[in-house]
Amino acid sequence: MTDAPRAPSHAQDQFLNVLSRDAAEAAFLDALRPAPLGVQEIGLDGLPGRVLARDIAAPVDAPPFDRATVDGFAIRAADLFEASAARPVHLRLSPETIACGTAPMLPVTPGSATPIATGGPIPRGADAVVMIEHTEPDGDGIAVARAVAPGSHISFAGSDIARGQTLLRKGTLIGAPEIAMLAAVGIDRAPVWRRPRVAVLSTGDELVQPGQPLRPAAVYDSNGPVISAALRENGCEAVHLGAVPDDPQALETAVRAAFAGHDALILSGGTSKGAGDLTVRVIEGLGAPGIVAHGVALKPGKPLCLAVCDGKPVVVLPGFPTSAMFTFHDLVAPALRAMAGLPPRGAARVEAILPLRLSSELGRTEFAMVALTEGPDGLVAHPVAKGSGAVTAFAQADGFVTVPALVDSLPPGTRAEVTLFGPRADAPGLAIIGSHCVGLDAVLGRLAGRGIRARILATGSQGGLAALRRRECDIAPIHLLDPETGAYNAPFLAEGMRLIPGWRRMQGLLFRPGDPRCEGRGLDAALAALLADPEAIMVNRNQGSGTRVLLDGLLGGARPPGYWNQPASHNAVAASIAQGRADWGMAIRPVAAAMGLGFLPVADEHYDFAVWQDPRDPAALAAFEAALADSAPELAALGFVRA
Amino acid sequence: MTDAPRAPSHAQDQFLNVLSRDAAEAAFLDALRPAPLGVQEIGLDGLPGRVLARDIAAPVDAPPFDRATVDGFAIRAADLFEASAARPVHLRLSPETIACGTAPMLPVTPGSATPIATGGPIPRGADAVVMIEHTEPDGDGIAVARAVAPGSHISFAGSDIARGQTLLRKGTLIGAPEIAMLAAVGIDRAPVWRRPRVAVLSTGDELVQPGQPLRPAAVYDSNGPVISAALRENGCEAVHLGAVPDDPQALETAVRAAFAGHDALILSGGTSKGAGDLTVRVIEGLGAPGIVAHGVALKPGKPLCLAVCDGKPVVVLPGFPTSAMFTFHDLVAPALRAMAGLPPRGAARVEAILPLRLSSELGRTEFAMVALTEGPDGLVAHPVAKGSGAVTAFAQADGFVTVPALVDSLPPGTRAEVTLFGPRADAPGLAIIGSHCVGLDAVLGRLAGRGIRARILATGSQGGLAALRRRECDIAPIHLLDPETGAYNAPFLAEGMRLIPGWRRMQGLLFRPGDPRCEGRGLDAALAALLADPEAIMVNRNQGSGTRVLLDGLLGGARPPGYWNQPASHNAVAASIAQGRADWGMAIRPVAAAMGLGFLPVADEHYDFAVWQDPRDPAALAAFEAALADSAPELAALGFVRA
């Protein structure tokens, strides 16, 4: 049984005590005092990625004995002191031969040589090894035509690792080099910090697990899997318990069970005030001191709830994916890393120029995700403004810019510090900013096959041209109609730019099949019927897009209902109509076909690629042109005609 | 049954065709043509770290419907166009309330508002959401005192991910952001490249597995575990089969079984010519084309053997650990990564100054491992010259310098390119170059507890002072006796340097208990007896060490047998005596005690720390001094007396 639907009301509490980011962090760490949970012994195979819980002393020397580092003969250097090509020295052979694994029984006496293999133990009396290549057979012995420095080709016992030395220090993150050191002194297991076992539970009636069919008004639970993955990246064992509906009894049962059986509990969803305080009420009963922060002056991430109950962290992350991941990495992961015995994650930082103003709200620490491209004056940080509900922003962004609480905006041209998500600022081989088209996916697939990584930022045609003008991207895909000349794209180029011809794609008016205002009619008649009906709701496109220009031309000055719904993609327009939220809009034909919508052709648009005549990377651009030619079959299958 | 011990003889083949590194690589890749092995479907939890084998198209939109991004009321923006604080607009409430997971049934009509929770689907007719914080209860409805832009607080269907778009491209390495994208469109499993299953087999009579007791003349098999770890880091499944002795029958059986059951086979050891050609002969029978390179002009790594048999790579890595890991990373890992579908490992590179000449052999590509410190003119690359048998070099080094085949040396001051092992050049907080002492381990343990990472390079006192003079390190631990004044350390400081007092440690003459030349005698009598006996073999220390200075003073000009054995540590000296390879030498008392050796005191040495009066990082140096004070108990336990 679930409760009645939760929705906002003025009676509910708002966040009464919104803490600053730093105050929330301090309160959380103060109540938690995160520390490793305990020690376990792990065998060599399982050690990579683990953290040593104690210093490790070497129980033996490595190498364990003086050994030969080449194939040759163990000798006394003094015997060869006067050896030369003119006067080779004869040495008699010892009756003993030393292979790897053979303990020598006889000393090397003056005037003698003992054959020895690489890795073999140096016999007593010898103080050097002469390489076999530097000797000749000579009767019952060998002739040596050069002197050898004492100590040559010997690796001395303990010279690499000395018995008793601290081999590896507590807190070391184990990788392959550390495995080599442990194995070399015969250690086959080592004490490491136990991994925190963290329960992950999503809450909300609307959640459906991936792999299941999506109900109306429901969304997939992406937070559960991604929080689990992020926990594993931070040295924890994640136990993903799925989603629990907003039923007080079910929630309480699930939360209590998850809390009891694990070292930490991460919930997501259910903190937004409108979604009710069910979760928060359950947490308050788990243990002392309970909730230490609920509502943090962070964007994204305000609804974050941090609690410590009986020494365990309990966190409610915001339901929206970007908010959830930012708050996780900023405030939760550091505490969990300390519990796992891991050092803080050292985030790399680079400086980059902001091409546009970055606005922020005073009094709130804001994180803005950015994608980096190579500009004429260094790296350029393009905001990836996707909203906190987006899941693609993290994959498209290279890092984020922090706007401090006391700053209200960063003006264009600001050199901002970008905290990178990865270890390096890898600006892509080709930066493509402008209008997106499904056909571009095919071209980029071909380009990837040629080993060139491209990044697309879908800003619309105008945004792309502006970025190209500032040389902040390599290619601007555009489809802009010049109303004066009726020509596409070329009239919009700046001096020194050229067009790589792309393809033609049919734009048209989309409607649900059977709509009597459109079905069986021509474009003009259908449009007239739609505009005449106050119940007919349109869906528009974002400003700066070529489709918007086309639509505005079609509408004259009309502003029919729905005009202000301005999604940023063809697919969003089609989805809105297919789902009945709107009745008509404009998009390209393959998108209409994919969703089974009716289509009235409007314009055979030219989708081309603006570039500079003197590009930053001519080879990468040539590869793009070749990939474009390769993509003919995919483009034809989409109904696009190559220009 | 094992064969008779293998040892070098002039009758054996030398490497007949030593190929250049590039020729060996070309021959190997040409015969192998490495490509992914096949596709498997993996569930979300198992996907991180895997590589997509196909493009993934989004089966649904994300978000799947237009949804509210705040708690508030779905409204028509036109209704609020003229709303202001002076003239709030009244909207009547719709009878419907939209929570997450609730599909709206009623449209928003002019003049009305529908309560909606964050994430709730926008009802038909509404084109914006007004935040609950910006409204007041007003009779049976709400009052709104500000205008709202159309589209406000709505996340449009498909605006993040549009149905049909290429969500993730073939070849993508999956991390948490990609998990979020897959989950958000309901995908719970994805096709990834199958991981190559690689068998790892060590060969050699001398090998003992870690965890087992070490026989005389035997060494631990460190290559097996470390190659397994490196394989896993490069996207392979490693199957470590242990070690097989040098018995032709056993070797053939083991190699054939490992080859048959896996996608690739990596052997280590057994390629050095002196160790015989057993392994190579077995490989020749495995399949065509067989061995493509045996002997490569690489240092370290010459004995490398590369083969391709029936389409599978078969590699014999050199037995010495550093050689094995360099050749693995340079020539083997790239092919295995291609088989795993992984992109080449992008190694980061930095420029650093060489403080000393780096010599190389013409005609051979040489890799020199280096540790980085911060110098006055940027990073300094100190060679970590440990020999190819060392296992600690990889852990101490930050990367390597490549000396091309046609260069015979790089002079001091060269700005060389360093290929980093890790993602970043992390020069440590404190660079300590000079003499090593077991007491220093205790101090560094305390320092690590204060959060400061230090790097020690054990070059001996003189090398440390030279590095300090060039300001390439922060601290030089020294114990140098000035024979003229009888004073320690202070006479050696340059102007502007000072000493941090360390501790006193007793140096003495070491011997096996019961040795009649020493037991029960005083130092002078013992030394006289040892020098008088031509059978008494000493073990010396490396030049530049303080102990060597002390010993040379004790010996006058004498050069007794063993004088040229010059290991670099106290422990190596003690081990040599304990194992009977030498009879006497000099080391500090705790080392003698640890190995149960006799000890005749020679000098109460002062081990101090030379630093600049104007250090690079005063805070880190202060932390070092504090850690030194903290270490009093550990130092006392070692028998050291704080100065």
TrEMBL record, chains A, B:
Catalytic activity: adenylyl-molybdopterin + molybdate = Mo-molybdopterin + AMP + H(+)
Cofactor (UniProt): Mg(2+)
Keyword Ligase applies: no
Keyword Transferase in annotation: yes
EC number: 2.10.1.1
GO cellular component, one term: cytoplasm
Pathway in which the depicted protein is active: Cofactor biosynthesis; molybdopterin biosynthesis
Boundaries of every MoaB/Mog domain copy: 199-338
Enzyme class: transferase
GO molecular-function terms, A-Z: metal ion binding; molybdopterin molybdotransferase activity
Entries under InterPro entries matching the protein: MoaB/Mog-like_dom_sf, MoaB/Mog_dom, MoCF_biosynth_CS, MoeA-like, MoeA_C_domain_IV, MoeA_C_domain_IV_sf, MoeA_linker/N, MoeA_linker/N_sf
Listed GO biological process terms: Mo-molybdopterin cofactor biosynthetic process
CDD domains reported in the protein's UniProt record: MoeA
Keywords: Magnesium, Metal-binding, Molybdenum, Molybdenum cofactor biosynthesis, Transferase
Function recorded in the entry: Catalyzes the insertion of molybdate into adenylated molybdopterin with the concomitant release of AMP.
Family of the protein in this entry: Belongs to the MoeA family.
Protein name according to UniProt: Molybdopterin molybdenumtransferase
Originating species: Rhodovulum strictum
